[in-house]
UniProtKB/TrEMBL annotation:
Top-rank lineage group of the source organism: Bacteria
The protein's name: tRNA N6-adenosine threonylcarbamoyltransferase
Cofactor(s) for this UniProt protein: Fe(2+)
Keywords noted in UniProt: Acyltransferase, Cytoplasm, Iron, Metal-binding, Transferase, tRNA processing
Record: residues binding Fe cation: 109, 113, 304
Gene3D superfamilies in alphabetical order: 3.30.420.40
HAMAP family per record: TsaD
Amino acid sequence: IYILGIESSCDDTAASVIHNGKILSNVIANQKIHEAYGGVVPELASRAHQQNIVPVVDQALKQAGITKEDLHAIAFTRGPGLMGSLLVGTSFAKSLAYGLNIPLIDVNHMQAHILAHFIDEDGFEKPPFPFLGMTISGGHTQIVKVDNYFDMDVIGETIDDAIGEAYDKSGKILGLGYPAGPEIDKRAQLGNPKAFKFTKPKVDGLNFSFSGLKTAILYFIQKEIKSNPNFISEHLNDICASIQYTIIGIVIDKLKLAAKQTGIKHIAIGGGVSANSGIRNALKEGENKFGWTTYVPKFEFTTDNAAMIAIVGYLKYLEGNFAKQDVTASARLKI
Ligand code: ATP
Ligand code: FE
């Protein structure tokens, strides 16, 4: 079974061909234009998707060594995401499926970040059900109880900023480029995590809050700069390490609570922030300290990609779970 997956929820245009569980191609066109604005500009994103979508799909088919007539179904991201971006992928997928007279499969982007773990990949184990999925990305921070592929419940999520935003907004305060997550991570590994202390937000239960941290960092920097204008440059690695230490603490506290409440010790992470070295190390430590088994997908399947859309397409195809032809994009689609 050959499935084409199409992803266009934010600023990356991506297409992937999957043959049964195995990825044959995974093409992605990044939109560099947003870096100059320090964040994604929706209007520019949808325009770039419009330019990229045909060449990206074409390349995905070529790399897979098939033609569009070989496809059995088209899977696309229905939401959540930016409406203008989603519309490009949705309309394209609908037209292509209609033209080829094959099934159309709608995919929830956040489910896909979790189900990326079910891509067949040498050296990567698939989590057994039930497991806890944690999606940590630029737009989301969720803990999801996963009982089966399409039987998932969000048991905790952020009430304000996403974890990736916490990184990016902290980076902005420090004068770093966008997105700042990777650089803060790199510098954190060279600094002292206990150099500065930022208090963790008090949020009951399994929900998260990250907006207070950003404000705490802002006030802290403003205060220090008064007595030492070079404070940031002189202490940048220590500041990054301290921010990272605080964020990891928040994540691990919530995972501990989720594992305790559900009795589930299999933990699978996804989303762009899963690249974070500190979070990866803390999860590994959790294996010894708390008896967890943790799962981290291959890097290219953690940030936005179409392979994760294709694998969900394949899993839905096996169940005969297809979209109707009048399906529409949904910016706030829930799990
Ligand atoms: P969503 O899936 O919620 O719509 P998104 O797809 O835009 O959001 P991703 O592409 O999954 O988000 O992740 C991007 C985020 O990951 C950015 O905020 C970026 O700073 C962050 N990030 C990437 N690498 C790292 C890292 N090593 N450490 C911390 N953050 C990182
Ligand atoms: Fe994403």
